[in-house]
Amino acid sequence: QVQFVESGGGLVQPGGSLRLSCAASGGIFSIATMAWYRQAPGKQRELVAHITDGIPNYQDSVKGRFAISRDNAKKTMYLQMNSLKPEDTAVYYCNRRPAISTYWGQGTQVTVSS
C-alpha cells in the first residue's frame, strides 16, 4: 500500500525559507512523476511543482523561489522554499501526478506571517 508522509512545515516570516520532505512507502517511487500540491484556506488544492525524470516544472507563482528534488534511493521528495510570501500559506501535500485520491496524506502546514 502506497503512503506519503509530508514533514518540514512551520511558521516562518516573509522572506524566510523552509524545506519540505515527502517520504514514500510502498509502490515503485522511482518511475512515478511526483508532485507537490497545496491548499490554502477557502481555496481548492493546486499543483505547485512536479518532477519527471529529474526535470522540474513549477507553477508560475513559485518559479525562481521554490526548488523540487527527489532522492529515489531514499524514496523521498523535497521542496525547498525560499523568499516565502504570505500567499504561500497553505497545507502542502505530495502525491503522484496525476494525483491518486487514495494516496493523499495529512500534509504539512506552512504559515508565512510576521
Q: Which terms summarize this structure?
A:
10 strands; single chain; 4-stranded antiparallel beta sheet; mainly beta; 114 residues
Query: Spans of 5+ residues with little confidence (pLDDT < 50)?
Result: none
What's the tally of helices? 0
Quote the average pLDDT: 94
Question: What's the gyration radius in Å?
Answer: 13 Å
Categorize the overall geometry: globular
Number of strand elements: 10
Helices and strands, in order, run as: EEEEEEEEEE
- Tell me the helix content: under 10%
Give a short account of the largest sheet.
6 strands, mixed
Coarse structural class? mainly beta
Distance between the termini: 40 Å
Strand order of the largest sheet: 2-10-9-4-5-6
